[in-house]
Design brief:
The protein has about 55 residues and is mainly alpha-helical. It is built from 2 helices and no strands. About 80% of the residues lie in helices and about 0% in strands.
């Protein structure tokens, strides 16, 4: 499970770096959407009582 979280956090970090350099509104929107999906996944995995959380 920790590998999944580590991968999500790594992807999130890379997206934040890309967001800072994004040349267009479309690129920023796409990156922000991906960040929202990652945050949702991290929230789900971190929920107490979730059968996926350790």
């Amino acid at each position: 499970m920790s590998t999944v979280i580590e991968n999500l956090l790594l992807r999130k970090q890379k997206l934040v770096e890309q967001l800072e350099k994004a040349p267009s509104v479309e690129d920023r929107d796409r990156i922000e959407h991906q960040l929202e999906q990652i945050n949702t996944a991290l929230d789900f995995l971190a929920k107490p009582g979730s059968k996926n959380a350790k």
